[in-house]
Amino acid sequence: MSSGKRVSGGEHFMVGDHACAEGALAAGLEFFAGYPITPSTEITEHLSRRMPELGASFVQMEDELGSLAAVLGASAAGARSMTATSGPGFSLMMENIGLAAMMEIPCVIVDVMRGSPSTGLPTAVGQGDVMQARWGSHGDYSIVAYCPNSAQECFDLMIKAFNTADQYRIPTLVLMDEIIGHMTERVVIPEAVKIAFSGRKRPVRPASEAAFLPFKADGNGVPPMAHAGEGYKVHFTGLTHDEKGYPALNAEAHRILVTRLIDKVRLNAAAIVEYEGLHLDDAEVVVVAYGCTSRSARQAVFTAREKGVRVGLLRPITLWPFPEDKLRRLLRKGEVKRFVVAEINMGQISREVERLTQIPVARVNHPGGAMILPEDILEAALS
To answer: What is the pTM of this model?
Structure first.
């Protein structure tokens, strides 16, 4: 990449972690705080070189908990902010993910998944964080989680992640896996003018400070965001709060607030959810796979088709919200008899598919360390 340029358009050959970092810069990243951890370290290293060239702020923190805390502070001041981590570091961020959801502070968190639990397999692939991504912080809240399956999508989905975070004032996750993070591929980068966007809405300044309600939502359920240093008086707290931002410690205030925090994503799911479908129009067997596993699944589907078996692929690009409506539409057609879910964990998204479809699901799993082979998925699809 050329020194001093936020975006270098054209064709490049890069690993997924670097494509992720370049996507963040293209999206307007202004602040990064993180702590190196395999296999996300290349994101941190790349941004440590690139951000000073652009006058943006890069800080290596003392740990992952402090990293996300710093990101929230920078975002509250108006900076597009992110961090990147993996495994144990992701676990340390859970408390502050809930804080970001409660205070409605937009940010992007990249988790490059590895073999787990605990220290697990630091340098090998896993996909065991998908349920933690959705439910890891305590209580009820909403997030969006994108899951790329190529270096190109690592770039593209970072831009969407920042836009989504700003539009809905939520923490937004990008769940890569070690294979995708370390895979070197062709990445086409467009010019900055085609992708630069800020979805943050500024509040209309009221006639008096007393009339200002910083957490009063618009028709989409999202309050405009006043930033620190802009002259507004805003009280941020992790406590249940009213539209003024001050603690309101009663059940009715909690119901109103938490319902709105959830509905920001739930009621806008149709606009958020993305997926890729392959040969779904006539499929009798549908394989569900994401991240690097979807690449094996694609080959399995092609081979099954060559054998005359009607197998299709549903690849969630947003793991959260999950593409529930697409699954239900497939069922209403009446042709799908069975689902196969392939993932590098012991069965996480498979439970989601079972819950939504009430159809037996064939699971293709192992806990991490290597990709699932196309032959394993093909066997499950044909049996």
So the answer is: 0.96
Neighbours of 197 (CB within 10 A): 13
> Do 276-382 and 10-194 fall under one CATH topology?
yes
Res 1: pLDDT: 43
β-bridge pairing 311-316 and 285-288: parallel
Element (H, E) at 145: strand 144-146
| CATH top-level class of 10-194 | alpha beta
Measured CA to CA, the distance from residue 172 to residue 192 in angstroms comes to 22
Residue entry with tokens 């129009």: 281
Range with the poorest average pLDDT among 87-91, 193-197, 265-269, 320-324: 193-197
Query: Per residue in 74-108, pLDDT tens?
Result: 999 999 999 999 999 999 999 999 999 999 999 99
* pLDDT beyond 70 at 195: no
Between CA 184 and CA 78 the distance in angstroms is 33
Q: What CATH number does the domain located at 276-382 have?
A: 3.40.50.920
| pLDDT mean across residues, the chain | 94
Compute CA distances 25 → 4, 57, 60, 117, 156, whole Å.
11, 12, 17, 31, 11
**Residue 27: DSSP 8-state:** T
Query: Which residues have CB under 8 Å from 62's CB, separation 6+?
Result: 35
pLDDT of the residue at 69: 98
**Which of 75, 13, 70, 81 is closest to 47 using CA atoms?**
81
Which token pair is 211? 């009339």
Cα-only R_g, the chain: 21
Q: Which residues pair with 57 in a beta bridge?
A: 31
pLDDT of residue 283: 96
First-residue to last-residue Cα distance in the chain? 48
Domain map (residue ranges) of the chain: 10-194, 276-382
pLDDT interval class at 199 (50, 70, 90) = low
Contact 178, 126 (CB under 8 A): yes
**DSSP 8-state assignment for residue 247:** B
Contacts of 221 (CB under 8 A, 6+ apart): 260, 263, 264, 267, 268
What is the distance between the alpha carbons of residues 206 and 329, in angstroms, rounded to a whole number? Answer: 46
